């Protein structure tokens, strides 16, 4: 399945946010700000984020983008009826240096399962890009007290 123009534009937004990160004069590590994320909402807004590397751990780009959307009033499955009524519809993560779309890590998949189960995720499937459901990405998810799988 080909990506829609909106999905292709979302990839461009994710690339733009990671490409905007200034490059320092110190030798970069592969673990420094290497991932950008973009989320599309039902009202057309796009929220972005980048990962924050620190030796003690740090948030993935997806989680930063989720937080940016929440701060702007976009609800999650845990906060129905709160916010401005917009819902997140699509998410994509890309690697820096034009390395393209990357699939979400396990932690991000679990967060999507718990808080944003209706998201469509743009993924790399071999040589092609396509959208996948969160259930498709995490078929045997841990089911916490937050939600029960239908």
Q: What is the CATH fold-level name?
A: Cytidine Deaminase, domain 2
What percent of residues adopt helix (DSSP H or I)?
Answer: 25-40%
CATH-scheme architecture: 3-Layer(aba) Sandwich
Mean pLDDT, to the nearest integer, reads 87
- Write down the overall geometry: globular
> How many individual domains?
1
Largest sheet: 6 strands, mixed
Poorly predicted sequence stretches spanning 5 or more consecutive residues: none
How far apart are the first and last residues' alpha carbons, in Å? 26 Å
β content, as a range? 15-25%
How many β-strand stretches?
Answer: 6
- Rg is 15 Å
Looking at CATH, the homologous superfamily is Cytidine Deaminase, domain 2
Structure write-up:
The structure is a single chain. The protein is α+β, with helices and mostly antiparallel strands and 150 residues long. The chain has one domain: 3-Layer(aba) Sandwich (Cytidine Deaminase, domain 2). The protein is built from four helices and six strands. Strands 1, 2, 3, 4, 5 and 6 form a six-stranded mixed beta sheet that branches. The mean pLDDT is 87.
Topology:
Elements: H1 5-19, E1 35-41, E2 46-50, H2 61-71, E3 88-95, E4 100-102, H3 106-115, E5 120-125, E6 128-133, H4 134-137
Parallel strand pairs: 3-5
Antiparallel strand pairs: 1-2, 1-3, 3-4, 5-6
Task: Give a quick set of tags describing it.
six-stranded mixed beta sheet; 6 strands; 23% strand; zinc ion binding; Cytidine_deaminase-like; Cytidine Deaminase, domain 2; cytidine deaminase activity; Cytidine deaminase-like protein; globular; alpha+beta; single chain; 150 residues
């Amino acid at each position: 399945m080909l990506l829609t123009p909106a999905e292709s534009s979302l990839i461009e937004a994710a690339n733009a946010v990671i490409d905007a990160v200034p490059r320092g004069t110190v030798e970069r590590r592969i673990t420094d700000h290497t991932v950008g994320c973009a989320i599309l909402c039902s009202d057309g807004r796009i929220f972005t984020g980048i990962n924050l590397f620190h030796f003690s751990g740090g948030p993935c780009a997806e989680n930063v983008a989720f937080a940016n959307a929440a701060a702007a009033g976009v609800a999650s499955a845990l906060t129905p009826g709160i916010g401005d009524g917009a819902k997140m519809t699509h998410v994509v993560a890309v690697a820096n240096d034009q390395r393209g779309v990357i699939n979400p890590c396990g932690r991000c998949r679990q967060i999507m399962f718990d808080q944003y189960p209706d998201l469509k995720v743009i993924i790399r499937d071999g040589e092609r890009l396509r959208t996948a459901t969160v259930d498709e990405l995490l078929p045997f998810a841990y089911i916490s007290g937050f939600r029960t799988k239908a």
